[in-house]
Amino acid sequence: MSGFSVPNPCPQPWATMSPTAAGRFCGQCQHEVVDFSAMSEAQVHAWLARPEGGSVCGLFRAGQFAPPVLAGTALAAAPPRWRRWLLTGLALLSLKPLLSSCQSAQPAATATTGPLEQADELAAAPQGQVTIRGRVLDDSTGLAVAGAEIFITDTPYGATTDEQGNFSFTMKQQWAPVQNGLVNLRVAASPFVFVPQALRVAVSPAPAPLTVRLKSQPGRGMIMGKVMGHEPPQKPPL
């Protein structure tokens, strides 16, 4: 499903507009502003897909379509409950040799290794290619931002963050978007919550895992303006 955003929020006050069946009429731009603030994402998509839709100006509630995020990564990295019970029981029975064996046999993902450290343990990209990985966080809370989109410059290529805010993609080091050994990335999450961010990354040698902290939209209040659609990022061609 394609996404949508309001790249240029409108400063006109909602309260001064004349009520209409679908929202309010803006006398400044002579355009109806549809009140999407109580709609689901599917309902908004359905509205925008109407044949008579055309250019639509809308009012949204900040955080309206923000994807759920985990409270932190510690829970995701914790071992299953049955394993904790087993280890506790073994300790009580003083079966130290068996306990040591069980602990050493645990996969790396259940240790204290964080998401980015786990990503570092993956195999390096083939020669002539580079893997760019990192994590996107909410700058105001420090929590992971799921569903954030990372685009390579103005191309449709990139990646989307998982529930822990991690992303990773592999691309050619010699490619049109790479200029003087650097590539520009565009990072955007819910446009009604976060301000998009741009950053420049060196592709040779492979960069260390990135940490992107997205700033909040002012006040995280209501956002109004023309609605623009876009497709989610695709994997880069290799």
What report would you give on this structure?
- This protein is an alpha+beta fold and 238 residues long.
- It is built from five helices and 14 strands.
- A five-stranded mixed β-sheet has the order 2-3-4-5-13, with no helix packed on it. Strands 8-7-10-11 form a four-stranded antiparallel β-sheet, with no helix packed on it. Strands 9-6-12 form a three-stranded mixed β-sheet.
- The radius of gyration is 23 Å and the shape is elongated.
- About 23% of the residues have low confidence.
SSE layout and pairings?
Elements: E1 3-5, E2 18-19, E3 23-26, E4 31-35, H1 41-48, E5 57-61, H2 74-77, H3 81-92, H4 96-104, H5 115-120, E6 129-138, E7 149-152, E8 158-160, E9 166-172, E10 182-188, E11 197-202, E12 210-214, E13 222-226, E14 228-230
Parallel strand pairs: 4-5, 6-12
Antiparallel strand pairs: 1-14, 2-3, 3-4, 5-13, 6-9, 7-8, 7-10, 10-11
